[in-house]
Specification:
8 strands, 59% strand, single chain, 4-stranded antiparallel beta sheet, Immunoglobulin-like, ZP domain-containing protein, signal, binds 2-acetamido-2-deoxy-beta-D-glucopyranose
């Protein structure tokens, strides 16, 4: 009895101490390959980079990506996460031009949310970002 009480309190603490993010998506560039991109996940409130991915596609015009991360709350991540995808790319631009930058914001999410899953579509040829699926568990 006492042990199970201790375990369930411990379980509740574990639930609120970090939030799991599962962000999957596709990035597409209709211009002829090669094209290169960097996708960063940042907390916009503090401009803290949580994770990132850089790659070049030599043959494909689209690529799937999948970020899995756990963010602790407290410290720099305060009461809300304000996650954004920051995308830098050279799709359809001249070699001498600077990389283009796009942002996709997920808005504010309470740090007590246990699990956050997003499915996104990024079309660099049309400058569009779209959130196809969002499902959060509190
Ligand atoms: C992305 O934009 C290009 C250019 O308009 C279009 O041909 C392509 O079908 C779009 N891709 C998706 C998945 O909507
Ligand atoms: C995409 O956005 C950038 C920056 O706002 C702009 O310079 C570029 O012309 C846009 N491209 C298209 C295809 O709309």
């Amino acid at each position: 009895m006492r042990l199970s009480l201790v375990l369930s309190i411990f379980g509740m603490l574990a639930v609120v101490l970090s939030t799991r993010f599962d962000i999957i998506g596709t990035i597409e560039c209709q211009a002829a390959p090669p094209w290169c991109y960097t996708i960063k996940i940042i907390d916009a409130t503090y401009n803290v980079k949580a994770t990132s991915l850089s790659a070049c596609e030599l043959a494909n015009n689209n690529k799937k990506f999948h970020f899995k991360l756990n963010l602790d709350w407290g410290g720099v991540f305060d009461r809300d996460f304000e996650l954004q995808l920051l995308i830098q790319h050279d799709c359809g631009i001249e070699i001498d031009d600077e990389m283009q930058t796009m942002r996709l914001s997920f808005g504010q999410v309470s740090t007590t949310t246990y699990f956050i899953r997003k499915e996104v579509k990024i079309n660099l040829s049309t400058n569009t970002t779209e959130i196809l699926i969002r499902s959060d568990w509190n």
